[in-house]
């Protein structure tokens, strides 16, 4: 803005000098007058612009501009009169011309100063707005990331402690299996701790991760839990946010295992649907005892929320009850 | 001492069995997969002590206990985090947080050996406090002959006091549950139920009409046609719930 101010007054002085040089006065007079008038106005404006950088009146901005315009051009007329008296007093003709044009000089000065003050006001206002927006966006971004992180971190302590308990039991009867399960659990936990929220993986990678989880759960629940995972060939390379699938399946397992007795088959189907990846997870449930309150399952609201934060859409999670089966379907648009 | 292990995870049962091996005097009579099997086994074997998981299929450990006339001593084995445990830690015979060590297990066994048979009042107290835990507030488990019925709270029309029992009225008929009226008054508070009379708690969402009846008394008409008397104190409670 200060540069703009300097440029503005340079242009003004060139025009001023040019117009003046068309008159009867000598080159010396023209140059001195131009330098004094424009230099003074430029210097005073410089102060004002610099000042505005730190202070902009919130209310009555325009009165402030008017005040500056009047004040500065007034001061300019006074000071330049003194300076003319010092430098150009030898020419009486010129001095009388000065006296006559004081009003015009004031007017021109006022217009020029107000103009630059106005420009700088708009400039700084805009600047402030821009910074405020940037801060706001940043704050929103941070909040969103924190929320995503939290949602993803909602690893059930229940799952962890029960798995550890199973391992504890296996150390006595089947130490080899216990070690295997420790490895699986570690790998699974490492996956949940991966910090990168925005990371998208292929379905193939996510499925490997899901298998880890399913294997652990199958050790825990023994024969009661059966799983059937089917991925269509052309879906394997589609992408999805990391750790999105596991909570959906976890939800289905819990729903299935705690809402029925006997064996539970969890079906996972992944396929390409238009330009989206569609994954559906099916679990049995008992329509008679499943409670209306929990009708949509245990953890689905948080999955829905996560999908919303990622895609700004509410329609990506669909649930369906049919006969004794509950199906959760998520759609992942392929935007990257 | 005879024990039964009730847990839906086979490995969780096996570790209890394993730890019990060093006690020659303790005999495992049965292992159960869920509350239904547990109930049957308890009635059949009448054990001195049970190891009981809380989160299990269909009915949880607390709900299973509620269905037993004289419950045996209980050691809870659960992975629930501490805040849930707090609800009953003052009253439980003992509880083991999974995974637990042999030392911790031994302490629990010592404790129950000393107490031998727990008093029914004690288990009763456990259940009272467990009712406050969030996972069993929206349904009631009752026995219907030899069957077990799970009633979602929304399906309850009203409750009537019947000596030591409470009669629960639903669209399918009425069921008895050995609980006090104040127990239900407390646990149903959050579901728009009001205790309109010393002997009646009503689901306020089913009310169609409130008629004045004698002095200071009112009579409620439910959507189902049932008529429920309202006492003076009950009327003010009702007004509170309905926000009038």
List keywords for this structure.
heterodimer; A: 336 residues; alpha+beta; Heat Shock Protein 90; 2 domains; five-stranded mixed beta sheet; two-stranded antiparallel ribbon; 9 helices; 14% strand; B: 244 residues; alpha/beta; Rossmann fold; OB fold (Dihydrolipoamide Acetyltransferase, E2P); five-stranded parallel beta sheet; five-stranded antiparallel beta sheet; 8 helices
Write down the overall geometry of chain B: elongated
Beta-sheet strand percentage of chain A?
A: 5-15%
Number of extended strands of chain A: 7
Strand content of chain B: 25-35%
The coarse silhouette of chain A is rod-shaped
Q: Which stretches of chain B are low in confidence, meaning pLDDT under 50 for 5 or more residues running? A: none
Number of helices of chain B: 8
Q: Residue share in helices of chain B?
A: 25-40%
Largest sheet of chain A, in brief, is:
5 strands, mixed
CATH class of the largest domain in chain B: Alpha Beta
* N-to-C order of helices and strands of chain B: EHEHEHEHEHHEEEEEHEEEEEH
Report the average pLDDT across residues of chain B: 85
């Amino acid at each position: 803005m200060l540069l703009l101010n300097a440029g503005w007054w340079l242009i003004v002085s060139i025009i001023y000098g040019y117009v003046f040089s068309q008159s009867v006065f000598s080159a010396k007079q023209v140059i001195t007058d131009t330098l004094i008038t424009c230099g003074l106005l430029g210097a005073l404006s410089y102060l004002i612009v610099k000042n505005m950088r730190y202070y902009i009146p919130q209310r009555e901005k325009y009165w402030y501009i008017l005040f500056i315009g009047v004040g500065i051009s007034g001061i300019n007329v006074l000071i330049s009169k003194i300076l003319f008296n010092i430098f150009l007093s030898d020419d009486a003709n010129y001095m009388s011309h000065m006296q006559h044009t004081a009003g015009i000089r004031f007017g021109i000065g006022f217009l020029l100063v107000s103009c630059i003050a106005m420009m700088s006001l708009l400039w700084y206002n805009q600047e402030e707005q821009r910074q405020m927006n940037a801060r706001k966006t940043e704050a929103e971004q941070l909040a969103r990331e924190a929320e995503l992180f939290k949602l993803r971190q909602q690893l059930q302590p229940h799952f962890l402690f029960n798995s550890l308990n199973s391992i504890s039991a296996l150390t006595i009867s089947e130490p080899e299996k216990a070690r295997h399960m420790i490895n699986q659990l570690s790998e699974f936990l490492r996956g949940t701790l991966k910090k990168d929220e925005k990371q998208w993986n292929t379905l193939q990678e996510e499925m490997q991760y899901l298998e880890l989880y399913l294997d652990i759960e199958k050790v825990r629940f023994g024969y009661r839990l059966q799983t059937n995972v089917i991925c269509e060939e052309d879906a394997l390379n589609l992408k999805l946010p990391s750790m999105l699938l596991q909570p959906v399946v976890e939800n289905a397992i819990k729903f299935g295992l705690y809402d029925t007795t006997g064996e539970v088959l969890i079906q996972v189907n992944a396929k390409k649907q238009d330009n989206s990846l569609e994954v559906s997870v099916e679990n049995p449930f008992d329509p008679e005892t499943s409670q209306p309150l929990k009708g949509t399952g245990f953890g689905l609201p948080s999955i829905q929320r996560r999908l919303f934060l990622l895609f700004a859409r509410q329609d990506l999670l669909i649930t369906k009850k049919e006969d004794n089966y509950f199906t959760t379907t998520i759609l992942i648009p392929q935007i990257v | 001492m005879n024990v039964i292990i009730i847990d839906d995870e086979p490995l969780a049962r096996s570790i209890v069995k394993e730890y019990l091996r060093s006690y020659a005097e303790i005999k495992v009579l049965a292992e159960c997969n869920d509350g239904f099997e547990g109930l049957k086994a308890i009635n059949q074997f009448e054990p001195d002590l049970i190891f009981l998981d809380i989160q299990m299929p269909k009915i949880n450990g607390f709900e299973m206990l509620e269905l037993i006339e004289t419950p045996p001593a209980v050691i809870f084995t659960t992975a629930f985090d501490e805040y849930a445990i707090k609800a009953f830690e003052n009253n439980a015979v003992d509880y083991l947080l999974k995974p637990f060590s042999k030392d911790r297990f031994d302490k629990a066994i010592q404790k129950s050996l000393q107490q031998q048979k727990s008093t029914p009042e004690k288990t009763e107290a456990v259940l009272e406090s467990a009712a406050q835990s969030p996972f069993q507030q929206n349904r009631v488990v009752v026995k219907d002959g030899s069957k077990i019925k799970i009633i979602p709270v929304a399906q309850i029309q009203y409750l009537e006091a019947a000596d030591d029992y409470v009669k629960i009225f639903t669209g399918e008929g009425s069921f008895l549950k050995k609980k006090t009226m104040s127990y239900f008054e407390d646990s149903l508070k959050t579901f728009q139920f009001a205790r309109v009379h010393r002997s009646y708690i009503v689901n306020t969402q089913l009310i169609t009409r409130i008629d004045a009846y004698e002095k200071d008394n009112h009579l409620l008409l439910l959507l189902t046609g049932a008529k429920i008397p309202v006492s003076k104190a009950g009327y003010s409670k009702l007004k509170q719930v309905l926000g009038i």
